[in-house]
Design a protein that fits this description.
Helix 1 packs parallel to helix 11, helix 2 runs parallel beside helix 11 and helix 3 packs across helix 4. The two termini are about 20 Å apart. The chain is of the alpha+beta class. The chain is built from 13 helices and 17 strands. Strand 1, helix 1 and strand 2 form a beta-alpha-beta unit. It folds into two domains: about 270 residues, FAD/NAD(P)-binding domain (3-Layer(bba) Sandwich), CATH 3.50.50; about 150 residues, Elongation Factor Tu (Ef-tu), domain 3 (Beta Barrel), CATH 2.40.30. Flavin-adenine dinucleotide binds next to helix 1, strand 2 and helix 11.
Length: about 425
Amino acid sequence: MKVNVIGAGLAGCECAAVLANNGIKVRLFEMKPLRRSPAHRSDGFAELVCSNSLRSDKLDNAVGLLKQELRMLGSLIMRCADENAVPAGGALAVDRELFSKAITNAIESDPNIEIVHEQVTSIPEGPAIIATGPLTDGALLESIEELLGESLHFFDAAAPIVTAESLNMERVFAASRYDRGSDYLNCPMTRLEYFKFIRELTEAETAPLHEFENVSVFEGCMPVETMAKRGDLTLAYGPLKPVGFEGCRASDGKKPFAIVQLRKENREGTLYNIVGFQTNLKFPEQRRVFGMIPGLENAEFVRYGVMHRNSFLQSPKHLSKYYSLRSRPELFFAGQLTGVEGYVESASSGFAAGINMARYLQGKDQIDFTRRTAIGSLAHYVSEYNGGSFQPMNVNFGIMESLPDAPRDKFKRFLALSERALCIIDDINKSL
Ligand SMILES: Cc1cc2nc3c(=O)[nH]c(=O)nc-3n(C[C@H](O)[C@H](O)[C@H](O)COP(=O)(O)OP(=O)(O)OC[C@H]3O[C@@H](n4cnc5c(N)ncnc54)[C@H](O)[C@@H]3O)c2cc1C
């Protein structure tokens, strides 16, 4: 029996390699070079469509931990990334052409993998893994939508997410409007702070939109900077209206002129998104301008706001923690299509989907990497997220299970989380 893997991106290649390493025959479909998405340029596999950085390589950073876990698990993507690294300080950046070439060679020379250059237009029968990425479109997209009974999201208009512990709680208070509990964190602004903020927001540099992205579709989920450009008071009368908070005061002792609200992103309350702040500002500009919001002076961004085409499943409704469809266990999804965000995260979901497909076919217990590892915390996030609107997520320590006696010092805490995770991966490796 062969497993059909669709898409030879970061997730699909990792999937195919792990299946092949476990003795499973794979038929890997890739539509390039016959057809390319608007972001893909080269003919090689595992193309990095934008930056050549795989981000931090340090264990006090969750993406650094994820990389180390993948290395220990024998990831093809990590091996090729390490072998084709270019100097980038504490980050892991790669020569994107050599990286893609190394992966393409490894996949092409694997006797267990058959490569088919074809655009897949419907979900295949039998065991299959769909890893066609955030730009999945056309007939395949329609066939997934038909199967799931819902349309996939086409545009990612996400607001930034910050860690709770990085907020200055002397400037922030917990309350919901009109005494309806204390679910939100609120950042009251003085008149002066508001107008300074609006000036910087409207003049800040935005990221270029790719040619395939039609700006008009963003009307329904307007970037905060676009809204601010419609008039100095638009935000003060809109998402920042300071109503429903009796007795609250800004730093000048007066009633706030505007209030920025932060909404819980997870059950534990370790992460918050900035309500209404979907944005297309460049990442450093988000840090600078949103850092002007009282309480966010030193905010740690675990995810920046982004606006680009991004098809992804409402995975918590459909996927198990093994990345298989609950209603059809021989069908798996992997990569950014599942709601993980980023190159390494996509590869990690490819690894988890691949190993669990292999074990499913071999009649073995599937692997729950648990929320105590980075790879497992992403799998749990996409299959179990129960907050507001489900949005793609980069790996971060906030989605991992916290330590019982966590050190107060953040650096030590992150290292301790990493140490625990790597011990678990070591145990899993021994059991394989
Ligand atoms: C414009 C843009 C910029 C981005 N920049 C970054 C960044 O700088 N850093 C970062 O970490 N992440 C970035 N991302 C997110 C990035 O896409 C993912 O992190 C990663 O590439 C997703 O991996 P994937 O394997 O899920 O999909 P992809 O890498 O997109 O791979 C999907 C593969 O499937 C193939 N395919 C698609 N449809 C079919 C079909 N019907 N039949 C056969 N083959 C098919 C495609 O040709 C492609 O090779 C960006 C995304 C976009 C859209």
